[in-house]
Prior knowledge:
- 2 copies of one chain form a homodimer.
- The first copy, chain A, is of the alpha+beta class and 376 residues long.
- The first copy, chain A, folds into 2 domains: 7-202, CV3147-like fold; 237-374, CV3147-like (Beta Barrel), CATH 2.40.390.10.
- Chain A is built from 12 helices and 16 strands.
- In chain A, the strands form 4 sheets. Chain A has a 7-stranded antiparallel beta sheet.
- In chain A, helix 1 runs antiparallel to helix 2 (26-40), helix 2 runs parallel beside helix 5 and helix 9 runs antiparallel to helix 10 (224-232).
- The longest helix of chain A is centred in the middle third of the chain and has 17 residues, at 204-220.
- At the A-B interface, helix 4, strand 7 and helix 7 of A face helix 4, strand 7 and helix 7 of B.
- Strand 7 (158-162) of chain A pairs antiparallel with strand 7 of chain B.
Amino acid sequence: MKLSIEDLVDVGRGAAFLGTGGGGDPYVGRMLATHAIQEFGMPELVAPEDVADDAQLCTVAMLGAPTVLTEKAACGDDVDLAVRRMEKYLGRSIDAILPVEIGGVNSMLPIMAAARCDLPLVDADGMGRAFPEIQMVSFNIYGVSCTPLVVTDDHLNSLVVDTGTAKRAEDLVRVASIEMGCSVILSSYSMSGADMKRTAVHGTMSLALEIGRAIARGRHNGNPIDALIRHLRTTPYYSECRVLFTGKVTDLRRETTRGFAIGHCRLSALDSSDRVMEVTFQNEHLVARENGEVRAIVPDLICMVDSETAEPIPVEALKYGQRIRVIGVSAPPVLRTPEALAVVGPQAFGLEDAFVPIENLPESSTSSASPRGTQK
Amino acid sequence: MKLSIEDLVDVGRGAAFLGTGGGGDPYVGRMLATHAIQEFGMPELVAPEDVADDAQLCTVAMLGAPTVLTEKAACGDDVDLAVRRMEKYLGRSIDAILPVEIGGVNSMLPIMAAARCDLPLVDADGMGRAFPEIQMVSFNIYGVSCTPLVVTDDHLNSLVVDTGTAKRAEDLVRVASIEMGCSVILSSYSMSGADMKRTAVHGTMSLALEIGRAIARGRHNGNPIDALIRHLRTTPYYSECRVLFTGKVTDLRRETTRGFAIGHCRLSALDSSDRVMEVTFQNEHLVARENGEVRAIVPDLICMVDSETAEPIPVEALKYGQRIRVIGVSAPPVLRTPEALAVVGPQAFGLEDAFVPIENLPESSTSSASPRGTQK
């Protein structure tokens, strides 16, 4: 299967939704991918089951604060260099590029890398969403080493990191990425086709495309939020979903610190009730609380979209007064196991709340209305 | 030529002197080297001119704040790993180990590395002293790339850094070293035998040995400072030397910050005059000022020794009330060229004073007496 350049708009929109506020602005990624495709051609998208068990894969991604990614994008040579350094260190050539996260800009970077390196792209990733840290990925949770891990920058400086644990690699790469300008190219999680099949979240590139298309179709029909929710309910991973809140941004605290975009956003209800939702983020949204009660919590997805167009709004684009719907979505089941929650659950982000699947959390009486009910 | 384990005491003492306050406590290095020699045998010390032009060399050193190096030494496996990673990245085996600096602990690390890896050790280095940063080395000044640069730690994590400039590598490695505990093993400046002959400071391992022996002989004869000065005057690089000051430590400010030991030490004259010397350091001593006038300045060597035993005193061992002689020594000529001063001169350390060779600086009327004159 091949994507078209036109598909990239839908993939990008779907990926921005799955980015849950983080993952970097997909617009930047789409420009990078489009440019690469125009120069090198569109890569083949292969289903995970069609990858040979002994194929050598690696991931390619951007890492850094999304607030910086939008200003300091990949130059292309840094992407090639990351793959070349990985091949050099492994002592064998890479057979296909595997997305590490489907959320945001990192849905596009692998397309760019696959196009530039003339390699197929695997229709899968390690999250089915976005997460801020390197170890927060199904590959790591289920035993694939994140190292050797290659970091490159637009000055074509490179690092190869080889550590005992993914968390150690994360700590090292984070300080290096800050020193390299808060935005770098990363190649990691080199693995066999067999390990990919065992540990990846399958089919997520196609899922991002279909989510993006659902929003586009909904706009055409004047009902994008409804179309989005209805489509999500048909997907394998994201079927438990609901509009958590409809409100406008009344408080926003967002800092680029420790190499992350960290802060919270407060929304006040549009229905003139005194209901308030506060969403906390570290690049991605971590927990959504309505008047103090948890309505959705990581690793489940908390997505903010424009209340009219359903356009996903990344953290760095949040503005005072914006009208937003907050949508909660179930995470892929591989992220909800006890071993996964140890790595990507609330405690991994320093939160005290236990993980409760969104389908088991109480709904606000007002926001629990079907999307149709809150549609104007 | 082979050193003996007994020689290590003299090499260590000479290297501590050439470390100009930095370079890490040679005692730690000597313990590491002794242990390695007892287990693996003493490596061959080869003269630079006896190394084949097409031999593949690399340096091995510890990097970090000397205040931390004394507490967190190499474990041995980290040293082997650094050499193995370098070989892997270069795609060829290393033929000999080259010291990067002769000052302090890094006179010993290469002995340890050569013993463990069963490789010869080259009698040369890139400084003829110690400096705090990776780019401050004759290899870099005269065109040898410091990268690929391997960093390892005692948990056997590794980084391979490949950058356009040595300063960029320094910035990256410094933040990584802090993250890895402020003390790491470094392998860098891989080069051919021909490049080593062209760029290295030759014979410095032997020179450290002879300086250490001169101090030991002087102690035997009751006159170690005199013996040290007289010996230095016979050496090829260190012949311009003088006792700058004799005093006791009356003020000491020493912080471990940005991965360095940074601060200054003030000495008051023992002769009941109001003369005061202030010595500023960044790991190594940078400038010695007597009542505000420069008496010696980097890259010339500023060495503090115990006023009775001539034992070199590293920055981390400085104590209030200590009686010290400050000795100024000419740097090897390759460090005094305009291209070298751009990298290791006063401005490279943020100082405003111009470099003036010690032999052209005025002497204090009191301290200018010959060493014999200030000997008790």
